[in-house]
Amino acid sequence: MLKKRKDYSWLIIVNPNAGLGRGKKDWDCIDSLLKKHKISYQTEFTKARKHAIELTARGIRQGFRNIVAVGGDGTMNEVVNGCFNQNICRTQSLTLSMIAVGTGNDWGKMFSIPASYEEAIVLIKNKSFRLQDIGVVEFCQGAKIEKRYFINIAGLGFDALVVKKTNDQKDKGKGGNALYFWNLLKCLMSYRPTLTHIIIDGQKINNELFTMSLGIGKYSGGGMMQTPNAIPDDGLFDITLIKKMRKGEIIRNLKKLYDGSILEHPKIEGYTGKVIHVDADPVVHAEADGESLGHSPVEFKIIPKSINIVYGNYPEQ
């Protein structure tokens, strides 16, 4: 149970299961480094999926305005959702940071968050921060319409299938940076493109969609650049649409996902937009920040410069 805030500067939310248990295994080391650098904090440990959402919102009600996620991209996503699922304060008055113990840590790559615990803690101590954009997606879960906020990148179609397979394997104790890549290759054998209807700020696009990514940040899937031109505070999603392609052609061009040249391929299109609506028959599934969601129809909206983040280097336009 969170105590009423006294003199704590930071609420630290620890996912003990992140990084195949690194959150729990390395906490004593992280705790000692926080004390070494005289950072004032209160700690809460998550106990289940979505628990960080509850802990974050409750902490804000108790007076916290500075929050650290000790975990991976999924933990940070839950913290963001906790920030936006409260009505105590404006999200622009909140500051988020991360001590990365996850497997991918793609959001942190965008802002040069160090893998070294001590270096990440020094960033928190120095507290260089700026506002970044946040995305929100409304999607279907059966007959229900649900909402999820995200801080890095969302995907539809093939990308969402790979994320689901990867998450299922993480739940079984598997992990590592290569997990997403190997699931990508496995899913490629069975996935079929879907006739999809997309509207980007009023512009209609109909095609057989293989996969779609909407980026605030550049990196996903353990270092892939599906949205290489994304800028985290320009008030726009960077959108990458990959049309129907032969499997061999996809495999031959996988390196483009890592070197930032993906948009050079003639069957891959890049857009920017603020409001994106997607429908398909049959439905396509969605993910955000590596968290599996529901299915189409979906609508994405950008919330410009809506939360502060602590950074190492901030990507400039």
Task: Count structural domains.
Answer: 2
What is the 3D shape? globular
Mean pLDDT: 91
Give the name of the CATH architecture of the largest domain.
Sandwich
Terminal residue distance: 43 Å
Q: Tell me the strand percentage band.
A: 35-45%
Overall SS class: alpha+beta
Individual helix count: 10
Q: Please name the CATH topology of the largest domain.
A: Tumour Suppressor Smad4
Unreliable runs, pLDDT <50, ≥5 residues?
Answer: 1-7
What's the helical proportion of residues?
Answer: 25-40%
**Which sheet architecture does the biggest sheet show?**
6 strands, antiparallel, barrel
Write the topology of this structure.
Layout lengths: L9 E5 L3 H8 L1 H10 L4 E5 L5 H11 L4 E6 L1 H12 L10 E6 L5 H5 L6 H10 L2 E13 L2 E7 L2 E5 H14 L7 H10 L5 E7 L2 E13 L3 E2 L3 E2 L11 E7 L3 H6 L3 H4 L8 E6 L1 E6 L4 E4 L2 E20 L7
Helix pairs in contact: 3-4, 7-8
Question: What is the compact description of this entry?
Answer:
By secondary structure, the protein is of the alpha+beta class. Helix content is 28%, strand content 36%.
Protein described:
Helices cover 28% and strands 36% of the residues. It is built from 10 helices and 16 strands. It has helices at residues 18-25, 27-36, 51-61, 73-84, 106-110, 117-126, 158-171, 179-188, 247-252, 256-259, and strands at residues 10-14, 41-45, 66-71, 95-100, 129-141, 144-150, 153-157, 194-200, 203-215, 219-220, 224-225, 237-243, 268-273, 275-280, 285-288, 291-310. The chain has a 6-stranded antiparallel β-barrel with strand order 7-9-8-14-16-15. Strands 10-11 form a two-stranded antiparallel ribbon. It is globular and about 55 Å long. 46% of the residues are buried. The model is unreliable at 1-7 (pLDDT under 50).
